[in-house]
Design brief:
The protein has 1 helix and 16 strands. A hairpin with a 2-residue loop joins β10 and β11. The longest helix has 9 residues. 38% of the residues are buried.
């Protein structure tokens, strides 16, 4: 967290007037679009989420995230989730793992094909709420636009043991989802709705969840997102999950070609 704040303080803002259209994972829906952050750009994200399930377990989470456009059409980054879980067994607080990820956009949207990307995530057991096993996930992402609307398809599967389940930000055994968004250009707002299926472990029931949300360009470099999620099956999934977050785009002069450190 200190590192993220320091980077923001040392950086300079980017001209990012349309960042609200960049649909990031969990910001505010699980489904994301196929586009990485700009080359040499940083994006710092600070989201809060409240989730309650049918077993009277309530989880609060804060998930600082930092992404960097390390190469053309490529972003890398990390998440360091902190969770507070309250339930019949008491209250538990701690880190819920370390997530490292990379996304590569290998096809820009054209007349014939949608934008296509591959994302790889690694979840590692760092912290008291992170479990004790690692897991790696491979995800395919597609985005197709028409007018003010876009549709996104995501699908992922994970390799690793079945008992690698942190309190938050875990990598499910597999999941697949679709989202539709609509841009309100004059309001600098993106509206999103999604449906997704998720199986946390090989022996678990499959969740079916629906989400709605919005992203708003608060300042030229800062985006506010808000969303709500609900299960469609009575046996599994969140009774309710609320999320709100801020993302900020910036650059560090010394990491950009032709811009010496001052």
């Amino acid at each position: 967290m200190t590192l993220m704040v320091g980077l923001v303080a040392l950086g300079r803002p980017l001209a990012a007037q349309t960042d609200y259209r960049n649909l990031d994972d969990d910001r505010p829906t699980r489904v994301e679009d196929a586009y990485p952050v700009e080359h040499y750009a940083f994006e710092a994200v600070l989201p809060y989420q409240l989730e309650r399930d049918q077993n009277d377990v309530t989880v609060h989470s804060l998930v600082p995230e930092l992404s960097y456009g390390a190469f053309a059409n490529t972003q890398i980054g990390f998440k360091l989730p902190l969770a507070i879980a309250n339930g019949p067994g008491g209250s538990h607080t701690g880190l819920s793992g370390l997530r490292l990820f990379a996304l590569y956009n290998f096809n820009i949207e054209g007349p014939a094909l949608p934008a296509l990307s591959l994302r790889v995530d690694g979840a590692f057991p760092v912290g008291s709420l992170a479990g004790d096993r690692s897991r790696v996930s491979f995800e395919g992402i597609a985005t197709r636009s028409w007018g003010k609307n876009r549709i996104h398809l995501n699908g992922a599967f994970a390799a690793g043991p079945d008992d690698a389940t942190p309190a938050v930000e875990g990598l499910p055994r597999w999941w697949a989802g679709a989202a539709l968004d609509r841009t309100l250009f004059r309001q600098s707002t993106l509206l999103i709705a999604e449906l997704y299926f998720l199986k946390a472990e090989s022996t678990a029931l499959t969740e079916i969840n629906v989400s709605v949300g919005a992203r708003y360009q608060w300042t030229p470099t800062t985006v506010l997102d808000i969303g709500v999620r609900r299960r469609l099956r009575s046996a599994i999934g969140p009774d309710i999950a609320l999320t709100i977050g801020l993302s900020h785009s910036f650059a560090i002069a010394g990491l950009m070609p032709g811009r010496p450190v001052r």
